Amino acid sequence: MKYKKNNLIIDNLKVETLAKKYSTPLYCYSLKKIRENIINFKENFKDISPLTCFAVKANPNKVLLKEIGKLGLGADVVSVGELMKALKSGIKPNKIVFSGVGKTNKEISYAIEKKILLINAESKSEILEIEKIAKIKKKKVNVGIRLNPNIDAKTLSQISTGKKENKFGVSEKTFLDLASYIKKSKFLILKCLSVHIGSQILDFRPYEKTLKVLQKIINKIKFKFEYVDLGGGMGINYEKNNKKLNLKRYASVIKKFIEKNNCNIIFEPGRTIVANAGYLISKVIYIKEGDKKNFIILDAAMNDLMRPALYNAIHQIIPAKKTNSKTKKIYEFVGPICESTDKFSTIKNFQKLNEKDIIVICDVGAYGMSLSSNYNLRPKPVELLVKESKVKVINKRQNIKDLI
Questions:
Q1: Against a cut of 0.90, is the pTM above it?
Q2: Of 243, 274, 305, which residue constitutes the final position of a domain?
Q3: Which DSSP category does 93 fall into?
Q4: Fewest CB atoms within 10 Å of the CB: 62, 173, 189, 373?
């Protein structure tokens, strides 16, 4: 994405042209950027040859999943719906890992029938449920156990998953007990030690601490795990302040870990693959003047992009057409929904905007459409994929008549 003669361009296509042709609000993804992200991820971790399973929860669009699968990635799923979507998108079962704390009997049964690579269990009850279903089906099932390492990932509290107060994973004692139980089972095969400490992580040190915790567990259990699933959570630079995770340093520590334990690594990235490849294009409906700030009321709302309302997440907002005029007023970019949390950003020194101008909210490819809703009975927006300067509609705009 760049400006060309003051017009914002996404892979050689003018944003204003897309807005005019497909109406707003709309999601637009760059396949070129997704490919670049995957190549970069592979390059950083080439020395450890991981199985990289895309976190489907980040963006479950079938066309995107097909393209991601073509580039060699598997899938990390957390529901039977995501599992079905991944399979329908052409991702092979032996590249799919099923995570999550609340898998139902039907979900577990379906995963066993499809012979996926791993079911990562998160409680004693879940292990017993998997074993019961496996016994009925007379099948042996590959399982992992997710450890809660009690590590603070230094991220938002809402997306932290590796502390003892979080619902995810099991304690060290429970882990050791479950591992002992599984090793004696006729229907379960212990394949994996799994961990995931949170999302949007930009500090390398929590990952390093996690590997030390895993090493202690492996030393105690004296068991060779075929896989160690390190989850995902790698952050991106939403604030454009050049702060980023040092992936090469992380890879070097993992390499030493592999040499000690002779295991295969699984990653579950989502955000790093698709976040900065997605844009939410919106139109200014009204400019409501206030004493200290002007409200820029957009046709996009929190139902289209929930992250700012849910986490106070920051997304850069930029104009589709650049001008030299600056406003003296503070701009608060908001949506039309009847909630004060329906707010995207408050910005000083933005260029002067007019009603009907087009703006772009950046880095929305992850947890944008996947968290969207029909709140206030608003139809979900159209999704577009830009592929070699051509546009493809990969999800039609919802029809309000169908909602009603």
A1: yes
A2: 274
A3: G
A4: 173
